[in-house]
Amino acid sequence: MSIPEQLSRIVLDGEAEARDEFLADVEGWARVHGLVMGSGAVAPLSLVPHPLKREIFEEGLALAPLFGKLVQNISEDAQFLIDAHHNVTDEFTTHLLSILKQVVNEGIRQPTAMGIHRSDYMIHHGEQIQQVELNTISSAFGALASRIAALHHYILHNWIKLPSGMSLPQPNPTLQRLPNAFNVAVNEYRRFRGSAGAPLVVMMIVQPGERNSIDQRWLQHSLFENHGIRTIRRSLADVASRASLENDFVLKIDGYEIAVAYYRAGYTPNDYPTDKEWAARLLIERSVAIKCPNIAYHLAGTKKIQQTLYDRSILKRYLPNPSEEERVFRCFTDQYSLDPGCNEGIIQQAIKDSHAFVMKPQREGGGNLIANSDMAHALQTMSPDERSNYILMRRIVPAPKPTASLRESKITWMPNSITEFGVFTVFVGRPRDHILNEAAGWLLRTKDETLEDGGVAAGRAYLDSLYLYLSA
Question: Model pTM?
Answer without folding.
Answer: 0.96
